[in-house]
Amino acid sequence: MVQLKIPVVQNILQANERLAAANRQRFDELGIFAINLMSSPGAGKTSLLEQTVDGLAGRLRMAVIEGDLQTSNDAERIQRKGVQAVQINTDGGCHLDGNMIQIALDALDLKDLDLLVIENVGNLVCPAEFNLGEHEKVTILSVTEGDDKPLKYPLMFQISSVLIVNKIDLLPYIDCDIQKIRDHARQLNPHQHIFEVSCRSGKGLESWLSWLEAKVAEKRKNKA
Amino acid sequence: MSIAQSLLEIVLEAGQQHQLKQVKTIRLQVGEMAAVVPESLTFCFNLISENTIAAGAELEIENIPVVARCSDCGTLFEVENLSFICPQCQAPALELVSGREMSLLNIEGETGDQNGSVEDTGGTEHPAGQ
User: Fold this and answer.
1) Domain A14-216, CATH homologous superfamily name and number
2) Cβ contact, residue pair A158, B10, below 8 Å
């Protein structure tokens, strides 16, 4: 019996990183700006998407990849608005990965597209570890979840370049200190863009839409 | 679970390459900011490695502290209480030097050969950053 010690030295998620890089290259070649939208279940990912689709109608051409454990309800909600949407059912998997996105991209017409929004599975933990090839990670936190969430799920808030604080119309009824959310998030990522919005009333959404437009314009300029 | 699955694939591939009959130890580095709980990873790995050469292998997980570099003055500092502000000049530090690792370092196991020696396959060992 020979005892062997074998050095391997490999990032465990290397396979996913390779697929994410391939997706990223595809977006760059086509001049598409891609975001990975993440949050816990019920924070308002699909509501934000619906508002974004409505708000950007006639301004940007967009498509959506929807990730959910089960059902195609969310993709149908988006499709009803006349936007291309493809559903990925993870059948219990708690996050999307680079491979799922690669497959989903084949179901979309990517020609003449400005913006691709990938709605991840509702979860503040695992999606943070899996790059999909996106240009920016966007996290939504609703005020009803509590102001301690950034410190409880630090990786998610640290890697997200944008934080959308949703449901601010409910602030008068709950004990949530929005300044605490800002302070904790900035402590993790000092350069994070923070948008305070209410998808219900529409408050604050215009600055989020303008941010998207600016990013798309930047992407187009780099391609040209 | 999919992290355990990726780990098992890499371990089985390396094990087959070196004709291991049984993997005994798997050494990993996991950053303190990685979204991985060592106990869960071990639990999942034990489940999915049943009936493979890695069944019963021990996972030795080394925790890597979170270290950031100040984007202004270049100071390297260990991040405490998740505060990414430079202790020297109070500027925000954006570069994460370590803390997100999720790397396999080496595996140890037994081949079916009959002499009793211990071999090291060599190669320089160095931590794999991201």
Assistant:
1) P-loop containing nucleotide triphosphate hydrolases (3.40.50.300)
2) no
